[in-house]
Every structure is written in structure tokens, then in C-alpha cells.
Amino acid sequence: MPVDGARLWTLNQRLLGAVMDACAQELAGCGLETKEFFVLAEVEASPYPARIATALLLPKASVTVYVRNLVAKGFIRREIDETDLRRHRLVLTPEGTRARDRALAALAAEYDRRLARVTPRDRAELLRILTAMLTPPAQDRDRD
């Protein structure tokens, strides 16, 4: 019987939600709410709020609120973008880096607890599958 993509999507979302719920107390101990964590974790890869909103599929207005909170907590700062003086880019502070790393460690530990239920062979297969799903098809790579 074929596996329904929507079912896999739902199971993946539930797994991620369960991991986040299990780590909520650790995130709070880092001074982070769940969505603030996602924004903080995305800053280095996407240093502009609009890019963060796109990457995390969040409304720009929500990202603005999370950024404001993270700035107030001292986890990120805004800097003028040297390549475009009209723009501000976000930069992690040392405190933000520590909070992000502590939160990531808590999430990794919880995810590892769940991965322990799966054989090493199946974990390797999961890695292969997820990597394949995230790799653009050849025709998309050719356009870049």
C-alpha cells in the first residue's frame, strides 16, 4: 500500500511539535519562547527579517515582534548593512549565541532520545531520505 505524503507530513509535524513541547521548559530557561527560538536560530542564515519570515513561513509582522523581543533580551542587535545603508541586518550577540546553542542542545538531546527508538541502520536511512528530499532536482540545480 503506498504511503500518503500528507500522512508523512502530518507525522513529521507531530514529531517536531512533540520535541518542541518536551523542550519548552529548557527553552524558557534560555529566555526563549518557541517561535523566538526559531527566529534566533535563523538569524545567521537569513540576517534580514523579511528573509526570516520567508524561511520560517511566518508573517512579517510576527517576525517583527519576535525580533523586537530578541533585541530587548539582548540576543540580537540591528546593524546598518554596509552594502545597502537603507537596510538593517540582524546579528547574534554573544548572549544570543549562547541561548541558541543551549536551546539547540536541548532539542538535539530530546530528538536523540526519540532516535534511540530506531535502529542505527534506520537512522542512516532517515538521514539519506531527508537529505534527498532537501536536495533540489537536477533540473533546478541546472538553472542556478
CATH fold assignment:
Arc Repressor Mutant, subunit A
CATH H-level superfamily title: Winged helix-like DNA-binding domain superfamily/Winged helix DNA-binding domain
The structural class is mainly alpha
The total tally of domains equals: 1
Kindly state the mean pLDDT as a whole number?
91
Individual helix count? 8
Radius of gyration equals 18 Å
How many angstroms does the end-to-end distance come to?
Answer: 37 Å
User: Order of helices and strands, N to C?
Assistant: HHHHHEEHHH
Number of strands: 2
Largest sheet: 2 strands, antiparallel
Strand content: 5-15%
**What CATH first level would be assigned?**
Mainly Alpha
Helical amount? 55-70%
Low-confidence stretches: none
Strands of the widest sheet, in order across it, are 1-2
The CATH architecture would be Orthogonal Bundle
What would the principal axes of the Cα set say about the shape?
globular
